[in-house]
Amino acid sequence: MATLSGINIGELERYSLAVIQRKPGVSVRGITEDLTEKTRRMVSAQSIYQAATRLEEKGYVKSQLKRNIRAYRISPLGKRKLAATLAELGAVVSGELPAKKTRVRKAA
């Protein structure tokens, strides 16, 4: 699972977050159709709804009701989370480890 600020997100949440970034204002149905097409796996609308709810609870997306359909948009925190997730995946694929952040201490 990817981490940023100690919060984990699962595979379905990562995929959903990517779709929401690509298609601002997308509905659960839109996410479901997109992921079913792109992953070539059956994805239920209920599982997408639950993933989107978790993403909203974590502050990664925001939603708004439009004509009785909930529309999702990625938040600035969600953009950072997705970027960190993609960087982590890139490091795994390339075999490179990201540079560790070193903590600078002030002299006493």
Describe this structure in words.
It is a single chain. By secondary structure, this protein is an alpha+beta fold. It contains 4 helices and 4 strands. A two-stranded antiparallel sheet has the order 1-2. It is globular. The N terminus is likely disordered.
Mean pLDDT: 85
What helical percentage do the residues reach? 40-55%
* Number of structural units classed as domains: 1
Question: What is the tally of helical segments?
Answer: 4
Question: What is the radius of gyration computed over CA atoms, rounded to a whole number of angstroms?
Answer: 16 Å
Give a short synopsis of this structure:
The protein is α+β, with helices and mostly antiparallel strands. The chain has helices at 11-22, 28-39, 45-57, 76-94, and strands at 2-4, 7-9, 61-66, 69-74.
List keywords for this structure.
alpha+beta; 52% helix; Arc Repressor Mutant, subunit A; disordered N terminus; 17% strand; 108 residues; two-stranded antiparallel ribbon
